[in-house]
């Protein structure tokens, strides 16, 4: 199971999530089998040397299982944090692009305002010239 988890570190994300759930199921099955083994009488009798060793291995297996479960949770948490960090990074890039677009639009609107003011000034001058021309023509 440990080797499978190591392989999953380099697997594509959709596949990784799917396989992590399978590994968790395998761990549950393994834990169940270990409990069954502990509860099954192996014909060794109570207090024999083999029974003591089995008890030691059982405790070690439980500890390993607990450590592996914690490791899986830690890996999942790390994975989730990495995805969140990537999402935040994308959001920052989008915000920076939006800010640049907004700045460009404001500059363009400023230029258009100047053009409109120059056009208005020319229209006023043209209107004044037309008024003078009109007066000259009347006289």
What does this structure look like?
By secondary structure, this protein is mainly α. It has a domain at 83-138. The protein has helices at 2-8, 13-39, 49-138.
> How much helicity do the residues have?
over 70%
> Based on CA inertia axes, which overall geometry fits?
rod-shaped
Low-pLDDT runs: 44-53
- Assembly annotation: single chain
Q: What's the order of the H and E elements?
A: HHH
Q: What's the rounded overall pLDDT mean?
A: 83
Count of helix runs: 3
Class per helix and strand makeup: mainly alpha
Terminal residue distance = 106 Å
Total number of strands? 0
Largest sheet: none
The fraction of residues in strands falls at: under 5%
Rg, Cα atoms, Å: 39 Å
Protein name: VTI1B protein
Domain T-SNARE coiled-coil homology: 78-139
Coiled coil: 106-133
Membrane topology: Single-pass type IV membrane protein
Name its key features.
139 residues; rod-shaped
Can you lay out the helices and strands and say which pair or pack?
Layout: H1 2-8, H2 13-39, H3 49-138
Helix pairs in contact: 2-3
Membrane topology: Single-pass type IV membrane protein
Keywords: Coiled coil, Membrane, Protein transport, Transmembrane, Transmembrane helix, Transport
Main location: membrane
Structure, briefly:
The protein is an all-alpha fold.
